[in-house]
Design goal:
single chain; 427 residues; alpha+beta; 5-stranded antiparallel beta sheet; 22 strands; binds adenosine monophosphate; binds glycine
Length: 427
């Protein structure tokens, strides 16, 4: 099987490495890729927001399967264009991708499916903003305001703050730019990312993971696209994954089938484990980044056959997923000033190892690998337990040099130390 992966992040690098381990995969290509993926796949520089360009490339290289990583091409209908060209594609239709592309659509589906999520209001008129702010946040008994961009924002559209001026400024800025704003109730409790393979009403969960959204140690500073992740979650009760699948993901998948918008691909449930049980923070229509880097490091099932089964409507026939024992931790090395405008063009030393996944990197004409984006590398450590996996990841990251770069030192630390407490339980 010849596989084309679309995207250029560490998630795509992780997908390529896992696909390479599948004996059924005979050729790997990536578009556009980065300096790291160039070592393991044929690289093509096409506009991945263009369905025609991606379908054309897939046809030209005789791909049997196209795997689309990021949300933007999915929301723009690139999977539809690939399928229209007669090529199997892993990733939802544009319509189904709106489960991520429009928070208002996602809330509507969850409402119809009876799935627990934060109550919310969409505001699209600045004149209604102040009254709406009064109905949320500390003014209404919540610890903080939760203000979101209704559309895609690369993980940076959300502000959670007890400061009304900050909440208002974020909302007003979005409205000024013509983006509807979603205000939400605050959901308390540790977060879980559950990436599920979905094909119509068939749902197969992967290992639960946890992502670190804030830029700084101790969850300080602004939200990012994700600074690290680990899997599995030793603190999550054994039956919670089944509960999330049965009470949240399956009802949503069924509701989408009922609306004639069946989902195919990865449906990523971002959840808070509240005192009332799991509740949805958001859905994504794709593999999470950086969760995928940790989750795929533990997957033993050949990935190509699995993704092809989803893409061709045969997930229900696929054998149960097999996982390596132990844990995986991924730590993101970010460029100076990320999540603001990152400093780029710096030479990176020590990034050419198998467990170092590339995101914002490019190879200069003199052969040096240089930074080219905010999240530059994603280092993956594995081991028999979280402590060993963390130690592995942090040992690797210490051997890499990138001027001005930063990373969080506390990825998976609270879990390793048994400090994650579920609301309503005693430790
Ligand atoms: P999102 O992009 O929707 O995943 O939001 C980014 C981060 O903001 C989440 O991972 C949470 O940490 C936080 N967040 C989003 N929505 C809520 C909410 N309703 N209550 C508490 N925290 C939230
Ligand atoms: N890790 C969060 C995301 O992929 O959106």
């Amino acid at each position: 099987m010849r596989v084309l992966v679309v995207g250029s992040g560490a998630r795509e690098h992780a997908l390529l490495l896992a696909l390479r381990r599948d004996p059924g995969v005979t050729a790997l290509a990536v578009a556009p890729g980065n300096a790291g993926t160039a070592a393991i796949a044929d690289q093509y520089d096409v506009d991945i927001a263009s369905g025609a360009a991606v379908a054309d490339l897939a046809r030209r290289i005789e791909a049997d399967l196209v795997v689309i990583g990021p949300e933007v091409p999915l929301v723009l209908g690139v999977a539809d264009a690939v399928r229209a060209a007669g090529i199997a594609c892993f990733g939802p239709t544009a319509e189904a991708a709106d489960i991520e592309g429009s928070k208002t659509f996602a809330k509507d589906v969850m409402d119809a499916a009876g799935v627990p999520t934060a109550d919310s209001e969409t505001v699209d008129n600045p004149a209604h903003l102040d009254a709406a702010l009064d109905r949320f946040g500390p003014a209404a008994g919540d610890p903080a305001w939760v203000v979101k961009d209704d559309g895609l924002a690369a993980g940076k559209g959300v502000v959670v703050t007890p400061d009304r001026e900050l909440a208002r400024a974020h909302a007003a800025g979005l409205l000024d730019d013509g983006h509807p704003v979603v205000l939400e109730r605050f959901l308390d409790g540790p977060e879980v990312s559950l990436l599920c393979l979905v094909d119509g009403e068939t749902v197969v969960p992967m290992l639960p993971a946890q992502d670190f959204k804030r830029v700084g140690n101790g969850d300080c500073g602004p939200n990012t696209g994700g600074m690290g992740a680990y899997a599995p979650l030793p603190w999550l009760p054994a039956d919670t994954v089944t509960q999330i699948v049965d009470e949240i993901v399956k009802p949503v998948a069924a509701e989408m089938v009922r609306r004639d918008i069946p989902f195919s691909g990865v449906l990523y449930a971002g959840l808070a484990i509240t005192s009332g049980g799991p509740a949805v923070i958001e859905f994504n229509c794709r593999f999470g980044d950086p969760e995928t880097q940790a989750v795929l490091a533990l997957l033993e099932t050949p990935l190509g056959g699995l993704l092809h089964a989803v893409a061709t409507g045969r997930l229900a026939e696929a054998p149960a997923l097999r996982w390596r024992e132990g844990a995986a931790v991924t730590v993101v090395l970010a460029a100076e000033n990320y999540p603001g405008r990152p400093r780029i063009g710096d030479v990176i030393v020590g990034s050419e190892a198998d467990d170092v996944l590339h995101a914002g990197t490019t190879r200069r004409s003199d052969g040096a690998i240089v930074s080219a984006g905010g999240r530059v590398l994603s280092i993956v450590g594995t081991g028999p337990d979280l402590a060993a996996a963390r130690a592995h990841a942090y040992r690797l990251i210490e051997s890499i040099r990138l001027p001005g770069s930063h990373f969080r030192a506390d990825i998976a630390l609270a879990a390793e130390q048994g400090r994650i407490v579920l609301p309503g339980t005693q430790q």
